[in-house]
Structures are given as structure tokens and as C-alpha cells.
Design a protein that fits this description.
alpha/beta, 6-stranded parallel β-sheet, two-stranded parallel ribbon, 8 strands, about 45% helix
């Protein structure tokens, strides 16, 4: 009894158990909340299926090189990669070397600005080497943008492969799915709608607040 341990994903819970060499029985899975009022669903008209967005720190764990290598393999698509970090020059050199249609922007945005930015893109490309949830990915999904990510750690808990996006192993597979979206604008619309519905149910602010209140009420009853 007592206050349960809160984890944002099943993967994180299992990872902590492995590190501590112990089983945690009193726990709850409550993801980080996604503000659906801010990241509102807007049906993608499909015209932007070749416009790709990625907002990631320029650090090794975020696999930005995979994104650049994948885009370099696909004709008639464009990627805007936004972020900050020590790998900026290295990523720019790679994009130049591969002649990838990638613009690298050394900046981050407020949440309001990100929500507005989502309207200009059809697909969110966010491969990763490590993620306990992937909040920026979930925000894009809430806005109705299907995602391309990686089948690592907690990400498969938040992306249904083939339904709300694609989970890909490495640049060739990422390129294949970018090509698929480019050639199938209707899939961008359908998967974007499913992505928004799924992530709002799993990680929407209303749901998360309800779960947090449930934990708080149980604690009051226990200590009352």
C-alpha cells in the first residue's frame, strides 16, 4: 500500500526494475500529458505529404543522421530539421555531403509556435536510439501528423506500426516509408487521424489529469 511509483511507460518501469534488481508491484503507468487543446487535430489535406518535419536536439541519442541519410535517398521530398546541440555542424556536413534536401535550423520553439509549425508539414520523422516516451512525437501525432520513428525502448507503446505511423530500423527502411507517404497522400490523412485519436486516448491531458487525481485520492484515503 501507499503511494505507487509512477512511470511514463512500461519500458521505463521494466528498465528501473532491471537496474534495481527488484520487482515493483505498486506502480502506475501515466504518460507525460499532451495538450490536445493546443495541439489540435486538423485534417491533413495530403498536399504536404512530401514536406517532412523533425524537431530534435542535435545530440547522438536522437538519430538525426538516420533522418538525413534517409531523406537523401528519396526524390521530391524536403525536410526541415529544427534543434540545438553540439552536433549541428556535423549534421550540416553530412547533409551537404549527401546532397540531401534538408534545411537545418539551429533553433527551438515555444509550444504555441510548434503547434503552428505542425500545420505546414505532412509527416514527422523522428528516429531515435533512446526514448522513454517521445513527447514531441506525441504532440505531432495529436496535431494529426503521422510519424516515422524507431522500434526502440518505449516508442512502440506510443506508435502503432502501420496504423498511426511506422517504426523503422535504419535509413533504408525510413526512406521506404517516406517514399510511401510521398506517393500515398491519402495514407497521410488516414494515419494522421488515427494518430491523433490514439495519442489523445493514451496521453491526452484530460486522461493524464484523471489518472493523477486518482492516485492523489487513493493516497488521501490511505493516509486519512
Amino acid at each position: 500500500r501507499g503511494l505507487p511509483t509512477i512511470f511514463v511507460s512500461e519500458w521505463l518501469k521494466k528498465s528501473v526494475e532491471k537496474s534495481l534488481l527488484m520487482k515493483i508491484d505498486n506502480y502506475r503507468i501515466i504518460p507525460n500529458p499532451i495538450d490536445g487543446d493546443l495541439f489540435q487535430y486538423k485534417e491533413n489535406d495530403g498536399d504536404k505529404s512530401n514536406e517532412l518535419l523533425s524537431i530534435r536536439p542535435f545530440r547522438p541519442k536522437y538519430a538525426n543522421k538516420q533522418t538525413i541519410r534517409a531523406v537523401a535517398e528519396v526524390d521530391d521530398v524536403h525536410l526541415d530539421l529544427y534543434g540545438k546541440g553540439p552536433m549541428k555542424d556535423e549534421l550540416q556536413q553530412l547533409a551537404d555531403q549527401l546532397d540531401a534536401n534538408v534545411d537545418i535550423h539551429e533553433e527551438f520553439f515555444t509550444q504555441d509556435e510548434i503547434a503552428s509549425l505542425h500545420r505546414d508539414y505532412g509527416v514527422y520523422v523522428t528516429p531515435s536510439k533512446s526514448d522513454a516516451q517521445g513527447v514531441s512525437m506525441c504532440e505531432a501525432m495529436s496535431s494529426g501528423i503521422p510519424v516515422i520513428s524507431s522500434p526502440v525502448q518505449a516508442i512502440p507503446e506510443f506508435v502503432v506500426d502501420g496504423e498511426t505511423g511506422f517504426l523503422c530500423d535504419g535509413p533504408p527502411e525510413i526512406a521506404e516509408k517516406i517514399r510511401y507517404f510521398r506517393d500515398n497522400p491519402q495514407s497521410v490523412i488516414k494515419m494522421g487521424k488515427r494518430a491523433s485519436e490514439f495519442i489523445r486516448e493514451k496521453s491526452g491531458a484530460d486522461y493524464v489529469v484523471e489518472q493523477d487525481l486518482s492516485v492523489a485520492k487513493s493516497l488521501v484515503r490511505t493516509n486519512g
